[in-house]
Design a protein that fits this description.
mainly alpha, globular
Length: 187
């Protein structure tokens, strides 16, 4: 759905305080806090986000009814602020990520995994925005992400589904090859 700039970025205002609050509760009620273990689970959640991002984009955004139509609007108008309202993202995240993580890992480590996933999601939102609205420095991470993502937009959605990393496109065979560069004329 089309959003205002504030609506598009409101997740950056909503999610960090929620994650911080849940983290503080987790450490308070867990008895003996284990920061090293918490950080390991956090980074596992962060890494897990990249795989989740790949499948979310490849399967859900391109094939699920209604969602694929909204995503198709993004492909038609990539500079428009088209996304999910923050409140809906929060509800979906609570039901599909946080609650299952709390049940399976306990509140402290479930919050760690959720915090990692949320960090990855916010990084995805930022990187995706920059791929369409910035001109990053040649050779930088953001330049490579932009180049990879724009190939996705201009290749009939046949690959390059990872936005923050191209790793899973390589693993699952959906990496779009770079066009051959033109040979330079002999001088």
């Amino acid at each position: 759905m089309k959003m205002t700039r504030l609506g598009y970025f409101s997740e950056f205002l909503l999610f960090p305080p929620l994650v911080l609050f849940a983290t503080l509760l987790g450490f308070h009620y867990s008895g003996a806090p284990r920061p090293a273990a918490w950080l390991a689970v956090y980074f596992a959640g962060l890494a897990g986000w990249t795989l989740f991002e790949y499948f979310l984009h490849r399967v859900f955004f391109h094939h699920a009814p209604y969602v694929s139509e909204i995503h198709g609007r993004h492909h038609d108008a990539p500079l428009e602020f088209i996304g999910t309202p923050a409140w809906l993202s929060a509800v979906i995240g609570l039901i599909t990520v946080a609650a299952p993580a709390w049940v399976s890992l306990g509140f402290d480590f479930g919050t760690a995994a959720t915090a990692g996933i949320v960090t990855g999601y916010l990084w995805y939102v930022f990187v995706h925005y920059t791929t369409h609205h910035w001109q990053p420095a040649y050779g930088s991470y953001l330049y490579r992400a932009r180049h990879r993502h724009l190939r996705h937009h201009f290749s009939h959605d046949s690959g390059n589904f990872g936005v923050t990393t191209g790793l899973w496109d390589v693993v699952f065979g959906t990496r779009l090859d770079e066009p051959a560069s033109k040979p330079r004329a002999a001088e």
